[in-house]
Amino acid sequence: MKVIVPVAGKGTRLRPHTHTKPKCLVRVAGKPMLGHLLDRIRGLPIEELILVIDPDEENELCIRQYVEANTPAPVRYVRQLELRGPAHAIALARDFIDRDVLIIFNDTLFDADLSQIDQTPSDGIIWVREVDDPRRFGLVVTEGDRVCRLVEKPEVPPSNLAMIGMYYLKNGPRLMECIERVMKEGRTVKGEFYLPDPLQVMIDEGCHLKAASVQGWYDCGTIDALLDTNRILLQNGHHRVVAATDSVIIPPVYIEEGVHIRRSIIGPYVSIAPQASIENSIIHDSIINEGAVVREALLQRSLIGERACVKGGYKCLNVGDSSTIQGE
Prior knowledge:
Structural class: alpha/beta
Strand order of the largest sheet: 5-4-1-6-11-8-12
CATH superfamily of the largest domain: Spore Coat Polysaccharide Biosynthesis Protein SpsA, Chain A
Number of strands: 28
Number of domains: 2
Helix content: 10-25%
CATH topology of the largest domain: Spore Coat Polysaccharide Biosynthesis Protein SpsA, Chain A
Low-confidence stretches: none
Mean pLDDT: 89
CATH architecture of the largest domain: Alpha-Beta Complex
Shape: elongated
Largest sheet: 7 strands, mixed
């Protein structure tokens, strides 16, 4: 099986953090988003992992260094020189797809049983989740567990089953043919090519795609969503504690080795990366990145970048890498 993961998105809703790192390397619950994804596919029979990346050389180097230290399979990198939508990103890998393919978009994390990939008698799987406001999502309409129609953010939703951004196709080359057809016909949504259009072509031509529910679906696309996902992951087993001096640690938290904590109250729902230093502070429901310094501060619902420095005050902060915030 080949696995395609597009990671070329600019991550504008996660700025300022994506000014200095690729979106997929923004940390949540102790590791980058991409690290959580790699953990979830580890153990699958992967012949090759294909990452679709942007042409920025610094971003590519950061991604390569992280992936090559953590990959569960051989890796190929494909550059997306212009952002023309998710289906266009997938199409860039067409020369390397000669068999079944698993596609995972990196905006969200998931809890799902991927063992059904080997067991399904259908031609493919679209993973879905029931949602409260279906108008915000691309939806599947089913007959039994068979997908019969895909609808993108409808005003009048025909179902509440949202596509989470993960797809498995037994016939990868056929998917590529359908993407190419849709692109030649110019079928876009706001100027971009989306995957539901070629998938609908496959369905209309008799392809049996199954809808499979996930147990969890966690958004990482905005600062608030990232902090919510940090909380959920910590509640569900992604927790770790190290020794702290004259401090109180309230679980669940994820505190990595090399963190300096002194005379502080940490938690619940706090992730702290290596080499961070925290003194005389109270922090909860926050993410503190590598090398950050926090002094005499009370932080909640905050995301503090790498090597950032926060001193004083009561704050809900979103501080980019190598920045300084000082209270009165």
